[in-house]
Amino acid sequence: MMQSQIDFALATPEILLLVFGLAILLVDAVSNHPERKPTFLLTMLALGVLTVVSAVQWKNGVAGSTFNGLYVTDELSHLLKIASYIAVGATLVYGRVYAQVRDMLKGGELYVLTLFALLGQMVMISSGNLISIYLGLELMSLALYALIALRRDDVVATEAAMKYFVLGALASGFLLYGMSMVYGATGHLDLAEVSKVIAAGKAEKMALVFGIVFLVSGLAFKLGAVPFHMWVPDVYQGSPTAVTLILGGAPKLAAFAITLRLLVDGLHGLAADWQPMLMILAVLSLAIGNLTAIAQTNFKRMLAYSTISHMGFVLLGLMSGSVAGKPELSSAAYGASLFYMLTYVLTTLASFGIVLLLSRQGFECEQINDLKGLNRRSPWHAAIVLLLMFSLAGIPPLVGFYAKLAVLQALISAGHVTLAVIAVLFSLIGAFYYLRVVKVVYFDEPEANAAPIVATAGQRGLLSINGAMMLVLGLLPGGLMALCVQAIRSSLSL
């Protein structure tokens, strides 16, 4: 229920992150350390403190809304924020050496911009109002635009930043126009109030449906779903790999959060209108993502098209919810979609982590052929690539298999058997390009000039844990799945 008073305690993580961000700006301004080590350590401390604060809030059952309904704290926000902190922390550990040898740490902007992007993601995750959703989205997007163009002398990165900026502005316009239509049709910006007006049948139906079309289009762009996917391969390939990982990790969690807030919390009463849209986006994403990935020789572009196909599975889970009169099926479907997104981000972190570790001064590990003979050079890293590719392909007993199975079960429970069959067929097609990477790693001869793999102990340890989680969560998925379903059930109006 909306509270009229302002409770700053609910927004403690955001306030702390803002303070840390400003402190890091000051420290960076007076630090002459060429590797920006004080800035890095302070950034990791900030992420650690935020993780503890959000975990304590979650454990103590802190929930509610403040700032007149603009900000919402619940189990879903706690879960997604903690996952975002972990994703950003892992990204910075993986990308530190890469950024250092490419002079991306000279000005220190990398860490501050990453934290401000994270702040925008946190606002998106805890938004209970159309205004705060847009505010968080723009804060995140502006920081990401700057991060992609961080290497000012790199023409390819600058081009990628321009593409993302132009298309991102277009998508933001779609979202904003859709929000204005929803406001015009209901007279409210608060999602809870919008839902009440729709449930009472007092909303202008035609304007709402038009608004939903624009909202879904904007959300599809942020998730990277077809036909709003055109930026994904170009931006993933053109960005410095460390920034590609920043872009492909935590922001996906925030985009998923606002999709749930808008469609499930605010527009639940119009599920019959937005579910067919998600179905079309999902099938197109599965088809184009998997089929186009087969033709890729660039590893980063292949992973980009892989992302598009995986967003198709996420959307299938979302469209399987909102089953009339069956809230338990709805929570299971949305929980499966949340589980899929969390495990996908975990897999993405390690996939690009491998690329970052194999890149070195004067060499970008971008082509699939750059992984040739990795098993001869480092059997441990090759084994991690094997786990990652098998998980993305959905091969048991890895977590990718269970994530796909959970979404397929939700589809079948909702009566969408044909869609489940289509999803399985495209997954089988997609397995080809993942297995091709494994073939290159294990059966091709390494390049004659292949340099030894150099990584810090932190990077090696993190990558090992990240890879092991693919197997652990695949064998024991129950705990995380239960957390996801409980977070959905307690946070959304089903």
What key attributes describe this structure?
20 helices; single chain; oxidoreductase; ubiquinone; two-stranded antiparallel ribbon; mainly alpha; 494 residues; NAD
**What order do the strands of the largest sheet run in, or round the barrel if closed?**
1-2
Strand percentage lies at under 5%
The N- to C-terminal Cα distance equals 15 Å
- Low-confidence spans: none
Structural class computed from helices and strand pairing: mainly alpha
Tally of separate helices: 20
Transmembrane segments: 6-27, 39-58, 78-98, 110-127, 133-150, 162-186, 206-230, 242-264, 276-295, 302-325, 337-359, 380-399, 411-435, 468-488
Subcellular location: Cell membrane; Endomembrane system; Membrane
EC number: 7.1.1.-
GO molecular function, one term: NADH dehydrogenase (quinone) (non-electrogenic) activity
Structure commentary:
With 494 residues, the chain is an all-alpha fold. Helix content is 75%, strand content 1%. The protein is built from 20 helices and two strands. It has helices at residues 12-30, 37-59, 75-101, 109-125, 130-148, 155-186, 191-199, 205-223, 231-238, 241-248, 250-266, 271-294, 299-319, 327-358, 374-377, 379-393, 399-413, 417-443, 457-475, 478-491; strands at 64-66, 71-73. Strands 1-2 form a two-stranded antiparallel ribbon. A hairpin with a 4-residue loop joins strand 1 (64-66) and strand 2 (71-73). Helix 3 packs antiparallel against helix 4, helix 9 (231-238) crosses helix 10 and helix 10 (241-248) runs antiparallel to helix 14 (327-358). The mean pLDDT is 88.
